[in-house]
Amino acid sequence: MSKSKTPFGTVTERLDKNRYETDVEQSHIQIDQKAAAATSAGPLLVRVCPAHVYSQQLDGTIGVLYAACLECGTCLAVAPPGVLSWHYPRGGKGIIFREG
Ligand code: SF4
């Protein structure tokens, strides 16, 4: 995460004020690994996500650490069609913003 200083602290410091209510029963992000491999979507998803939710695994698949999601929608905007299934976490779950 960026260490850029703002008048109110670094981005990391500000994001650290947020809270998460993780839905341990259900991920709100699913990846079609075949579609991801066919479109080489992995590096793109890894690069665009500000929360480092996605990771390229040694076996070529894409890992998803959905609990860290900021719900910004960037991945959904750039993913090739058919790669991602993304929806907001169930009610009361996900990120609870404390700033911004
Ligand atoms: S919605 Fe934003 S934070 Fe969440 S996985 Fe997609 S790019 Fe990352």
Automatic annotation (TrEMBL):
Domain 4Fe-4S ferredoxin-type, residue spans: 60-89
Superkingdom assignment: Bacteria
Cross-referenced Pfam families: Fer4_ETF_QO (PF05187)
Assigned keywords, A-Z: Electron transport, Iron, Iron-sulfur, Metal-binding, Nitrogen fixation, Transport
Matches recorded under PROSITE patterns: 4FE4S_FER_2
Its biological purpose: Could be a 3Fe-4S cluster-containing protein.
Family from the record: To ferredoxins from P.putida and C.tartarivorum, ferredoxin I from A.vinelandii, ferredoxin II from D.desulfuricans.
Name of the protein in its database record: Ferredoxin-like protein
Source organism: Sporomusa silvacetica DSM 10669
